[in-house]
Amino acid sequence: MSSHGYTEKRPALDESLTDAEYDRLEAILRSLPGEDAMNLEEMDGFFAALICAPVTVPLSEYLPQIWGGDETAPFAGTGDLEEFFNLAMRYWNYIARELGSADLVFVPWLDAKAGEEFPRGNRWAEGFLRGIEVCREGWDEIFEDEDKFAMLLSVLCLAHENDPDPEMRTWQTPPSMELRKEVCTGLAVSAQMLYDYFRPHRIREGRRAAGAARQTKRKIGRNEPCFCGSGKKYKRCCGGVTVN
């Protein structure tokens, strides 16, 4: 991947992408060389699943999945990787805001191919399933309960529409436009229901992580080097700060 020369100060990770930045992110994803690399539609579904999940998945575990699973990032230099990271994480935060806000409506990003009246939604659904597989054990209660499993039906219908195994395919003949629209609309409903369902799980996990961090945090001695990297003793630096 050639360098793009993206050297200006990057926007904060809570800033929404501009139209030009959406186009740039889409272009970066299209240029990824990996056979299993994601396009923007698939990454949207992938991120949605990870945000809905009952557990927090480390960035190092899921980011390589975007460019096909290779641990080595396929970028020409640090600047290109930093650009991609900034755009991708801002995209993540946008999805998280939509799913987590009572005032916003989550809308999956679905791409209609040239000549098609309506998007198929297959790549989004495939991306969502890839997100589930990153932390599959956390989703067991959804797959093991028929009523809860129903929340995934729209995703599974579109993910398996063109399955290599004919017996796994959702439809033997192409669905009508009305049915496809109904199932694609169901993707948003499924994601929101799953996000809401797993919310208590994420809260409990967050509290456990915070508690563990408090228990393992080592108290800094007053004569030890300050953690801020100033080179001064802690008592002469951050340890001596007075707040009025």
Q: Please, how many domains?
A: 1
Helical stretch tally: 9
Stretches where pLDDT is under 50 for at least 5 consecutive residues are none
Largest sheet: none
Mean model confidence by pLDDT: 87
Strand coverage percent: under 5%
Radius of gyration: 22 Å
CATH architecture: Up-down Bundle
Q: What's the total number of strands?
A: 0
- Any idea of the CATH class? Mainly Alpha
Which structural class is indicated by helix and strand composition?
mainly alpha
What would you call the quaternary organization?
single chain
Helix content bin: 40-55%
Termini, distance in Å? 52 Å
CATH topology: Four Helix Bundle (Hemerythrin (Met), subunit A)
Question: What is the H-and-E element order?
Answer: HHHHHHHHH
Shape estimate = globular
What is the CATH superfamily classification? YgfB uncharacterised protein family PF03695
Q: What topology does this entry show?
A:
Layout (H helix, E strand, L loop, with lengths): L18 H13 L8 H13 L6 H8 L11 H23 L21 H13 L5 H4 L2 H4 L3 H7 L17 H40 L28
Helix pairs in contact: 2-4, 2-5, 2-9, 5-8, 8-9
Account of the 3D structure:
Helix 2 crosses helix 4, helix 2 (40-52) crosses helix 5 and helix 2 crosses helix 9 (177-216). The chain contains 9 helices and no strands. The chain is globular, with a radius of gyration of 22 Å. With 244 residues, the protein is mainly alpha-helical. The chain has one domain (19-216): Up-down Bundle (Four Helix Bundle (Hemerythrin (Met), subunit A)), CATH 1.20.120. The mean pLDDT is 87.
